[in-house]
Design a protein that fits this description.
The complex is a heterodimer. Chain A is an all-beta fold. In chain A, 0% of the residues lie in helices and 53% in strands. Chain A contains no helices and twelve strands. Chain A has strands at residues 4-6, 10-13, 19-21, 23-25, 31-38, 42-49, 56-57, 64-70, 73-78, 87-94, 102-103, 107-111. In chain A, strands 2, 5, 6, 7, 10, 11 and 12 form a seven-stranded mixed sheet that branches. In chain A, a hairpin with a 6-residue loop joins β6 and β7. Chain A is globular and about 40 Å long. The N and C termini of chain A lie far apart (36 Å). In chain B, 0% of the residues lie in helices and 59% in strands. Chain B has strands at residues 4-6, 11-14, 19-25, 32-38, 45-51, 56-59, 62-67, 72-77, 86-96, 98-103, 107-112. In chain B, the strands form two sheets. In chain B, strands 2, 4, 5, 9, 10 and 11 form a six-stranded mixed sheet that branches. Chain B has a five-stranded antiparallel sheet with strand order 1-3-8-7-6, with no helix packed on it. In chain B, β4 (32-38) and β5 form a beta hairpin. Chain B is globular. Classes of the chains: A mainly beta, B mainly beta. Chain A binds chain B through residues 4, 35, 40-43, 45, 90, 92, 97-106, 108, and chain B through 8, 31-32, 34, 36, 41-47, 49, 89, 93, 99, 101-106.
C-alpha cells in the first residue's frame, strides 16, 4: 500500500521557533505538495515541488520555506513560527496530472 | 478567480438510501474534477477522478457526474452505510496560465443507522 508519512501527528511550538515538518513518500512520485487546512477555508497550497531541488510557491507561501534534497522527502519549514500558523498541515504526492493526490495523515501544529 | 462551492451544511440520510453531494464551480472549465473523503483528524483520501470530456464515472457504490454546462459535479453514494459518514471534498484542476488545483471546503455526510 502506497504511503505518505508525516513525521509528527501533533506538535506544540512557541512563537518565534523554527519549525520543521517532514514528509516522506514511498511511491517514487515526482510531485509533492504542502497544504494547510483551516475550518471554513479548506485546503490551501503553500508550496509544491515537481522535482528534486525544485520548488514553486503556492497560494500562501509567506512565512514558509521548503526543501527537497531527495525525491522521496519534502520538508516544510516555518522560519519563525507565529500563532496564525496554528493549523493542520497536510503533505501530499501524486504521479502526474492524471491522478489524485495521496495525502499523509497530517500534522496538527499549535503555536503558543 | 476560480471558486468551488460545496454545501457547507451537513447532510443526514438514512442507511440504505442514496446520498448525493454537489460541487459547483465558477469561471474556468476544469481539466479534471476529483472527489476525496476525509475523516476527522486525518488526511483526505482520493476516491474518483473525472475528466472534462467524461459525463460519468463509477466505482463500486460511488458515482460521479460532470456537467460542464451547469458547471457542476454530483457525487452519489448508493446503498449508504454508517461507515460512509465523513466529509467529502471536491477538487478541481484547471489551467489559468499555469495549472491550478483548488479544493472545496467539503460537505459532511452522516448516515443514520
Amino acid at each position: 500500500d502506497v504511503k505518505v508519512t508525516q513525521s509528527s501527528r501533533y506538535l506544540v511550538k512557541r512563537t518565534g521557533e523554527k519549525v520543521f515538518l517532514e514528509c516522506v513518500q514511498d511511491m517514487d512520485h515526482e510531485n509533492m505538495f504542502w497544504y494547510r487546512q483551516d475550518p471554513g477555508l479548506g485546503l490551501r497550497l503553500i508550496y509544491f515541488s515537481y522535482d528534486v531541488k525544485m520548488k514553486e510557491k503556492g497560494d500562501i507561501p509567506e512565512g514558509y520555506s521548503v526543501s527537497r534534497e531527495k525525491k522521496e522527502r519534502f520538508s516544510l519549514i516555518l522560519e519563525s513560527a507565529s500563532t496564525n500558523q496554528t493549523s493542520m498541515y497536510l503533505c501530499a504526492s501524486r504521479d502526474g496530472t492524471d491522478y489524485g493526490y495521496t495525502f499523509g495523515s497530517g500534522t496538527r501544529l499549535t503555536v503558543v | 478567480s476560480q471558486k468551488i462551492e460545496q454545501n457547507s451544511e451537513a447532510l443526514n440520510i438514512q442507511e440504505g438510501k442514496t446520498a448525493t453531494l454537489t460541487c459547483n464551480y465558477t469561471n474556468y472549465s476544469p481539466a479534471y474534477l476529483q472527489w476525496y473523503r476525509q475523516d476527522p483528524g486525518r488526511g483526505p483520501v482520493f476516491l474518483l477522478l473525472i475528466r472534462e470530456n467524461e459525463k460519468e464515472k463509477r466505482k463500486e457504490r460511488l458515482k460521479v457526474t460532470f456537467d460542464t454546462t451547469l458547471k457542476q459535479s454530483l457525487f452519489h453514494i448508493t446503498a449508504s452505510q454508517p461507515a460512509d459518514s465523513a466529509t467529502y471534498l471536491c477538487a478541481l484542476e484547471y489551467t489559468s496560465g499555469t495549472y491550478k488545483y483548488i479544493f472545496g471546503t467539503g460537505t459532511r455526510l452522516k448516515v443514520l443507522a
